[in-house]
Structures are given as structure tokens and as C-alpha cells.
Automatic annotation (TrEMBL):
<feature type="domain" description="UDP-N-acetylglucosamine 2-epimerase">
    <location>
        <begin position="27"/>
        <end position="355"/>
    </location>
</feature>
<dbReference type="InterPro" id="IPR003331">
    <property type="entry name" value="UDP_GlcNAc_Epimerase_2_dom"/>
</dbReference>
<protein>
    <submittedName>
        <fullName>UDP-N-acetylglucosamine 2-epimerase (Non-hydrolyzing)</fullName>
        <ecNumber>5.1.3.14</ecNumber>
    </submittedName>
</protein>
<comment type="similarity">
    <text>Belongs to the UDP-N-acetylglucosamine 2-epimerase family.</text>
</comment>
<keyword id="KW-0413">Isomerase</keyword>
<dbReference type="Pfam" id="PF02350">
    <property type="entry name" value="Epimerase_2"/>
</dbReference>
<dbReference type="InterPro" id="IPR029767">
    <property type="entry name" value="WecB-like"/>
</dbReference>
<dbReference type="GO" id="GO:0008761">
    <property type="term" value="F:UDP-N-acetylglucosamine 2-epimerase activity"/>
</dbReference>
Length: 364
């Protein structure tokens, strides 16, 4: 069995690290990096830290409008498929890389396996929602992280090939958090940043609906951060950096510490030791939940509805007042965290077992 795996963004590198390890004994895997995330801090460092084999193909697509980026990926991935002639196309999540890989394979009659299938925010203005819905409807194997995701697919008439395998990100967190804690060069991140564990809040901002509001939207968010009693540490996404730096200079904010994007191991340590997470990221909401860190999601909806139980994750409008009130006054229910809707930490192996059983573990 030969599998072509398409990745392009840092959450996909993390997911691929654990799934590829499970697939290694049963197939030949050809890793394709679209270049959607191309900055070293957003890309190369992840391959180094997570011991992911270097991609066989780096398409170097880079940034651009959604249509331009997806179209260029589609053409280049098609060339890879024609060259490699895989048995399966494996894609992750909901990025433009996900959709481009799925479309290219589907049009060449290569069956698609979608890891993290069935997630829905029901906001079709989100590019991620468009990508995940379209990918699900052309996939042969749909690996759902939760029962809720499988139920979402059933509502859309998709039942064949659906497996509730658990969340591969839980596999990753369970493994790599221990790796991070045992690595002195990673645990030194607190001293390097001049912060103390549990005495800071961790924030990320990168989604288009956050940054499309321009400098005024960022200022409104930062005004809430400025009022909080703990320092807000903000690893800054390249898309957000110009607006964030301009807002800080323009308004003189002093409670926000912008830092360069960090590697996955440092990010796990920063997340697990924060007193609170504030983010517009889907993955970080969930990682905070895994590590029992309260989270404020700076969006009007979430695809990870399971995290909302017991106020461990709370949605906030992008207004100064709502962000501040949610951050300061949300109380979590410890008992609500006792149930684990995201599986048992063996999702990667279950995915490998399904593909091996369906396709046959015969190397080409």
C-alpha cells in the first residue's frame, strides 16, 4: 500500500507525526508539504522537533488569496499523484492544503482518507468550514475524532466509511508533553520569556475573521488583554504581526508580550502552564481542554462543541467588554471534565488498522 499524505500547516505536521509513525509498519508513505506555512518557525522547526521525515515533495506554494493558493496546490499535487500513483490520499483537518489534496485525488479516482472528519461550525463564511464540508463529501474514509462529528456527517447523509477513532491530537499531546517536560532546552522557555508558570495568559490570533477587521478589531481585543491582571503572552502569526505591532505602538499597550511563533514542544509547555488560554484557533481550544486549562475562544462558534461543557471553553464576541468579562468571571466545573469524548489516545493506531485492513498492508 502506498499513501500520499498532504500537509501544509503546523497543526497538520503535529497530526502527521503520530499517524505516520503508526502507518510506517504497514505502508509506504510519501509526504507532500504544500508550503502553506513556509516560515521556519511555522514549518521547519516542527519537522525537526517531531522527528517527521523530510517531505518527499515541497511544493513551495506559500501565501496568497484562497483561490490562488488552492488552485496552485491542486495543480502541483496532481503532478505528484501522477508521478507516485498512490493507493490512498491522506489529508488532515480543514486547510486549503486539505481541500486541494482531496480534490486532486478524487478527480484522478484515488480514494481519500480524511483525518478529523465531521467537524462543523455551521458558519459557511469560514474558509475552514468550506474546506472540511467539501473534503468530507468526497472522502472514502472519514476518521472522526468524536461521536458528535460522526453525528454531523449522518445529518448530511454521510454514513459509509465513517469511523469514530478518537482525536489524533490527544495522541500527540500525551506523547509530546512528556517529551517536552524532560527536555531542559524546552523547559527553559519560561526563563527566556521572563514569565512564571500559572502567572500569565496565553493568546493566539490568526483567523481571517479576526484580522479582516483591521487595526480597530485588534485594538478592541488588545484593550481587553491590557486590563487583565496577568501578562498576556502572544506568539504572533505572520498574518497578524503587522496589525499587532501597529496597535501596540499606537495605543501604548504594556500588558501584551509579542513573541515569535514557537515550536510545538514549547507551545505545549506554554499552554499547560498558562492560567488561561485565549484563542481563535480550533486546535489550541482542544489542547487547552486536554491539559485542563480554561479557554476563552475569540469566536462566535466552535467546531469543538465538546469543550464547552462546564465552561472549560467559553465563546466570546470580539469586543473589549465581552472578552474581559469572560476572561475574568468564567468559573469552570471540575466535574464536567471527567468524561473524555476524544478517545483513549490511540486514534493513530486505529486509523492505521482501518487503512491496512481495507487496502491490505502490502508494500508496492
Amino acid at each position: 500500500m502506498k499513501i500520499v499524505t498532504v500537509v501544509g500547516a503546523r497543526p497538520q505536521f503535529v497530526k502527521a507525526s503520530v499517524v505516520s509513525a503508526a502507518l510506517k509498519p504497514v505502508c509506504t508513505e510519501v509526504l507532500v508539504h504544500t508550503g502553506q506555512h513556509y516560515d521556519r518557525n511555522m514549518s521547519d522547526v516542527f519537522f525537526e522537533e517531531l522527528a517527521i521525515p523530510r517531505p518527499a515533495y515541497n511544493l513551495g506554494v506559500g501565501s496568497g488569496s484562497h483561490g490562488h493558493q488552492t488552485g496552485e496546490m491542486l495543480m502541483k499535487i496532481e503532478d505528484v499523484i501522477l508521478e507516485e500513483k498512490p493507493d490512498v490520499m491522506l489529508v488532515y483537518g480543514d486547510t486549503n492544503s486539505t481541500l486541494a489534496g482531496a480534490l486532486a485525488a478524487s478527480k484522478l479516482h484515488i480514494p481519500v482518507a480524511h483525518v478529523e472528519a465531521g467537524l462543523r461550525s455551521y458558519n459557511m463564511r469560514m474558509p475552514e468550514e468550506q474546506n472540511r464540508v467539501l473534503t468530507d463529501h468526497i472522502s472514502k474514509w472519514l476518521f472522526c475524532p468524536t461521536q458528535t462529528a460522526a453525528d454531523n456527517l449522518k445529518k448530511e447523509g454521510v454514513t459509509a466509511g465513517v469511523s469514530v477513532c478518537g482525536d489524533v491530537m490527544l495522541d500527540s499531546v500525551l506523547h509530546f508533553l512528556q517529551v517536552a517536560k524532560s527536555n531542559p532546552s524546552k523547559t527553559d522557555v519560561f526563563a527566556q520569556l521572563g514569565i512564571e508558570p500559572k502567572n500569565y495568559r496565553l493568546a493566539t490570533l490568526h483567523r481571517a475573521e479576526t484580522t479582516d477587521g483591521g487595526i480597530d478589531a485588534i485594538i478592541a481585543i488588545f484593550q481587553a488583554f491590557e486590563q487583565l491582571p496577568q501578562l498576556v503572552v502572544l506568539p504572533i502569526h505572520p498574518r497578524t504581526r503587522p496589525l499587532a505591532e501597529k496597535a501596540i505602538v499606537q495605543c501604548g499597550f504594556r500588558n501584551i508580550k509579542l513573541i515569535d511563533p514557537v515550536g510545538y514542544l514549547e507551545m505545549l509547555l506554554l499552554t499547560s502552564n498558562a492560567c488561561q488560554v485565549m484563542t481563535d484557533s480550533g486546535g489550541l481550544q482542544k489542547e487547552a481542554w486536554f491539559m485542563k486549562v480554561p479557554c476563552i475562544t475569540l469566536r462566535g462558534e466552535t467546531e469543538w462543541v465538546e469543550t464547552l461543557k462546564g465552561n472549560w471553553n467559553v465563546l466570546s464576541a470580539l469586543t473589549t467588554e465581552d472578552i474581559y468579562n469572560k476572561a475574568m468571571h468564567t468559573v469552570v466545573d471540575e466535574a464536567a471534565h471527567e468524561q473524555m469524548p476524544f478517545g483513549d489516545g490511540n486514534a493513530s493506531q486505529k486509523i492505521a488498522d482501518v487503512l491496512s485492513r481495507e487496502m491490505g498492508a502490502v508494500r508496492p
